[in-house]
Amino acid sequence: MRKNHFIANAWAQPSAGQYLDSFDPSNGEVLAQLAQGHAADIDLAVQAAQAALGESFDGPWGRLSALERSRLLMKLAAAVTEHAQELAELEAIDCGKSFKTAQADANALARYFEYYAGAADKLHGETLPFNAGYTVLTVREPHGVTAHIVPWNYPMQIFGRTVGAALAAGNACVVKPAEDASLSLLRLAELAAEVGFPAGALNVVTGYGREAGQALTEHPGVAHISFTGSTQTGRMVALAAAERHCPVTLELGGKSPQIVFEDADLAAAVPVLVNAIAQNAGQTCSAGSRVLVQRTIYEQVLAALVPRFEALQSGPPALNLDMGPLVNRKQYEQVRGFVGQAEAQGLTVAARGRIHAEASSKGFYQEAVLFRDVPADSALAQQEVFGPVLAVMPFDTEEEAVRLANGTDFGLVAGIWSRDGARQLRVARKMRCGQVFINNYGAGGGVELPFGGVKASGHGREKGFEALYGFTVLKTIAIHHG
Ligand code: TXE
């Protein structure tokens, strides 16, 4: 399968004529050849987006009313629902997800478009009380051309929450998917053209991060950058953006804790603790990769976790097991490296999951691993593994739990399990992160719920109305009428 860029509602061959191999993680074989984008391809896409907007927002996309944008997004949501099976299959094979996970991602994508379609014509400014003789108002305007650098773990969902919001707010988008997982996003761009988005409103340029990605971050025509990915690359993107004062939203990784107090409802908590790390084989920015358990119930919680971990199975996407393979060899080696290093340091493996007999030995399969008594300063407790590896550790007091929970460079999400209402809120207010879940974890995704991090987890908010605000520039207009 050979795929080109999608620019101005048409397939575009790569300017340098080069294609890169994208691999099937379930067997290590070449799945597709993707156009290898360079600066020239990015330039074409940015020009197409600029033309769609027009110099004074008078182009075929720029002049549409909020209601017209809303209706197009609603049509795109319907097209995604109609093609959900096809999109899920592409995503499952490309990323190594089980089909049921990819299906859920397709549903979430449709929901993002619905949500932002509904929000597009409710994105209004204010009138402000001011001096006598004045009327002052604010208007929210699009940035212009927005860049969206998308990783491989949830391509459709991340596309939905950034591109959906950016389009609703009236921006024209240039998307650079991950080199490992571009197929669903190329199809989405095609669907957008089919439902009537004007040429240039949505463009997808594939290629490597250091080529197409970097060129996009450096392009002077880009007015806002939304990046989801690693902390390291996020820093490079932010530096490139700073060179030309371009606003940037960074959604980076995490080492998110779940705190289990002795009064928690364990029957409710335990399955969620497992799912929070098994979901997408741990390749989730908000994965609950640390579990802090009050010492009085520590052995009880471990005893409940162990059989559930042992039952977790990894296998080919079509088998719809708990987990598929990891996305690529680099990720596979990274996760194996963390596990091997922890074992070499004498950390205790409490349980291991299984790899299904039908899994190819050439696929990137990693079984779930549960480590107990993990020291707070170890790599396993401090660094993002991005695989199905859970670090469990005990604590004695609430103060210690808060210190441990906040004691990493990251700050994305936290979970609190307790029946004590005062403690729930007290601890939630002390968490240094962007989202806190009490007696649940993730709230089932929640497209309406603002999401993002602090510290090395990034800045800016996606999802909900906050994302829409981020994709607009607030202009104040003061009228002196006497
Ligand atoms: O990420 P990169 P990688 C974390 C996770 C994972 C690690 C490495 O810990 O193990 O990152 O993954 C594009 N300019 N997360 O190497 O490099 C790249 O092409 C512009 C967490 O895959 O950050 C891809 O589209 N763009 C995370 C995207 O950036 C560049 C999701 C992400 O790649 C670029 C994924 C450059 N110089 C990984 N270099 C999350 N927050 O969910 C690369 N890219």
From TrEMBL:
It catalyses: 4-(hydroxymethyl)benzenesulfonate + NAD(+) = 4-formylbenzenesulfonate + NADH + H(+). Its EC number is 1.1.1.257. This is 4-(hydroxymethyl)benzenesulfonate dehydrogenase. Gene3D superfamilies: Aldehyde Dehydrogenase, Chain A, domain 1, Aldehyde Dehydrogenase, Chain A, domain 2. The keyword Oxidoreductase applies. Keywords: Oxidoreductase. Involved in the toluene-4-sulfonate degradation pathway. Does not discriminate between the sulfonate and the carboxyl substituents and can also be involved in the p-toluenecarboxylate degradation pathway. GO terms for molecular function: 4-(hydroxymethyl)benzenesulfonate dehydrogenase activity; oxidoreductase activity, acting on the aldehyde or oxo group of donors, NAD or NADP as acceptor. The active site is at 251. Belongs to the aldehyde dehydrogenase family. It comes from the Bacteria. InterPro entries: Ald_DH/histidinol_DH, Ald_DH_C, Ald_DH_CS_CYS, Ald_DH_CS_GLU, Ald_DH_N, Aldehyde_DH_dom. The keyword Cytoplasm does not apply. Homodimer. Transmembrane segments: none annotated. Pfam families: Aldedh. Residues 11-477 form the Aldehyde dehydrogenase domain. PANTHER family: ALDEHYDE DEHYDROGENASE-RELATED (PTHR11699).
